[in-house]
Each structure stands twice: as C-alpha cells, then as structure tokens.
Amino acid sequence: MPQLSELRTPDDDWTGKTKAEDRRRRQNRLNQRTYRKRKMLQNSHLPLASAMSVLRSGDFASPLSVYGEGILTLRDAEQHVKLYEFTERVYLDYTLYAMWPTYLPALIRLNVLNALAHNATMLGIEAKSLCRDETSSPFNSHGPQAPNGLIPALPYPESLRPTAKQRAVQHHPWLDLFPFPRMRDNMIEGAANGIFDDDMLCYDLVHTGAGSEVEQPALIVWGESWDAQAWEVSIAFLKKWGWLVRGCSEIIDSTNYWREKRGEKKLINVKL
Q1: Which of 199, 266, 257 lies closest to 235, judged by CA?
Q2: Residue 195, exposed/middle/buried by CB under 10 A (0-12, 13-18, 19+)?
Q3: For residue 89, is pLDDT > 70?
Q4: First CA to last CA distance, the chain
C-alpha cells in the first residue's frame, strides 16, 4: 500500500488496529504526508521517480557505490564526511521506500559531480586535481604528449575529443569534461576574455550545501556521463549561463527529449 511507505514510527501503523477511530487518525496522518510530498514534487518540477534514475538503480548496491568518482575531487575531509552521511541516508531511505523530495537538488548535483569526475578519469585527468586552481589542462601543456593531446592507451568517446581551441588555449582541465565541444569552446573563450567565472559555474552545478535548490542553475545527467543525449539543462541555467551553450544545439535537443518524457513542453526558439 502506498500509505505504508510513509510509516516513520510504530504508532503510524494503522494495520491491526481494531478501533475505527484509531485507524482513521493514523490513515489521515499518512495521507497528509503523502499529500505534502506530492505538492513538494509538483513545486520541484521533477518527479522523484525520475530523480532516482539520476542515481541509477544499479548504483544502490551499497552506500559506497553511490559516491561514484565524485568523492575523489573533494579535498576537504569534512566534505567527505558530509557526502558519506548524505549518501548513507539516501540509501537507507531508498531501501525503506521513503525517498524525500528534499533530496532532489543534492542528488542532481551529486550526479553531475560523479559524471564530471568519470569523464576526467576517461581522459586520463586525475579527479583530485580538479579542485586545484593551479592545474592546467593536459591538452595544451608544454612538453611531450600525444599529437591529439590524449594518452593513446586510454579509450575515450568522440564527444570528449579536445577541440582546436582546447589544444591552443591554456585553461583549467575541468572545462574539458563536458560532452559538448561548442560549450567547451565557449567556456574557454569566455575565461580567456575575462567574462566567465568558472568558479561560480562550479558552485552552481555541484554545490550541495544550504540554498542548493532545484530552481538554481543545474545540469541533469540521466545516463552515461560521456553521452550528450543523457544531459539536460534547466531553465534557470539557461537564464544565467545560456551563452555557454550558444551554438550547442545538442543540449537543447536532449533537454527537450527529457522534458517530453516528463510530459513538459519543449523549449522552442530558445534565445541564448
């Protein structure tokens, strides 16, 4: 029964109660919780069922597997503890069929962090180096390297192949991790011209602390990190960072695909 997923204490369980008044009181309490959760989901604009596909069902074999490779990017021990506590709590509630809409913003950002860290690994970039300001992309570093700027022994998808601009302009390696070549070029050009604050973008995309709401700029990853068709961009992201995806029709197409799956209107004539 759907109501039983809302049980929090033994007193909530109305099954086995012989008095109609006791049953109604407990059932009303559970119905109110279900109603409040539904309203929160409506306000979030993303169904919780879809949120769970953000962290794919196979990832819930254990709390540790939920981390993905994103934890490797964290330098602070306190951040490690917070991430562990959060993922353990999510895992426990998931196994009890008691997921809460308040998890949604953090789940979305955790998944983006994992996706970027995984792409870094695929490109031969150390995930732990991504939070160091002094780190430079290996694709334009001086010294011996493969002609295409990649470690030949590592297989990698075409969507992550470095562009001419990535090889020509020095930049931070985290800009190499998005599976959209035009977006990467826009970010590098913006940074070189002093009009792009990549620290602010990083904060918007992966910060999971207080104030990280679904309405804030967000990217959502529904599948493989390297697959452009698995990424979605939020309306808030387009309003704040739309120029970063100018000329990047793939991300609008993939966004419309996922919006249609949720029964939402497609983005038409997007002005960036």
Answers
A1: 266
A2: exposed
A3: no
A4: 46
Using DSSP's 3-state secondary structure scheme, residue 183 falls into: helix
Residue 213: other Cβ atoms inside 10 A = 12
Question: What's phi and psi for 184, nearest 5 deg?
Answer: -60, -45
Give a three-class secondary structure readout of 63-115.
HHHHHCCHHHHCCCHHHHHHHHHHHHHHHHHHHCCCCCHHHHHHHHHHHHHHH
pLDDT in tens, 208-256: 654 445 578 899 999 999 999 999 999 999 999 999 999 999 999 999 9
**Cα 78 to Cα 153, 163, 202, 207, distances in angstroms:** 35, 37, 19, 14
Integer angstrom CA distances of residue 80 from 75, 76, 83: 8, 7, 5
Residues β-bridged to residue 232: 220
Read off the tokens for 55: 């962290």
pTM of the model: 0.67
Phi-psi region of 195 (alpha: psi -120 to 50; beta: other; left: phi over 0): alpha
Structure confidence by residue, pLDDT tens digits, 28-81: 665 665 554 444 444 444 444 444 444 443 343 333 344 455 555 555 555 555
Q: How long a stretch of residues is the chain?
A: 272
